[in-house]
Amino acid sequence: MNNINKLSLEQEFKIALYVNKINTFNKRNVKKYLRDVLRKMMIKDNIIRYSIKNTTG
């Protein structure tokens, strides 16, 4: 259970790629990119919740 919050090497690499990409953006583009990422994360959360709700019980 201690490793549940740790990222895999692949995830760390993806973060490094995102950081490099974000560093090339201007302030306006960073804000737009952040909104897009947050939206995608919320959609992913909804899909996970829906899947859990419909597979149990």
Q: Report the strand count.
A: 0
Shape: flat
- How confident overall, as mean pLDDT? 90
Element order, helices and strands? HH
| Terminal Cα span | 26 Å
Strand percentage lies at under 5%
Oligomeric status: single chain
Given as residue ranges, the uncertain stretches (5+ residues, pLDDT < 50) are none
CA gyration radius, whole angstroms: 15 Å
Number of helices: 2
Structural class computed from helices and strand pairing: mainly alpha
Main sheet: strands, sense, barrel: none
The percent range for helix content is over 70%
Describe this structure in words.
The chain is mainly α and 57 residues long. It has a domain at 27-52. The protein is 77% helix and 0% strand. The chain has two helices and no strands. The chain has helices at 9-23, 27-55. It is flat, with a radius of gyration of 15 Å. Keywords: Plastid. Belongs to the ycf18/nblA family. InterPro entries: NblA (IPR007574), NblA_sf (IPR036904).
Brief sketch in words of this structure:
The chain has 57 residues and is mostly helical. The protein has a domain at 27-52. It has two helices and no strands.
Chain-wise SSE layout:
Elements: H1 9-23, H2 27-55
Features of the shown structure:
flat, 77% helix, single chain, mainly alpha, 2 helices, 57 residues
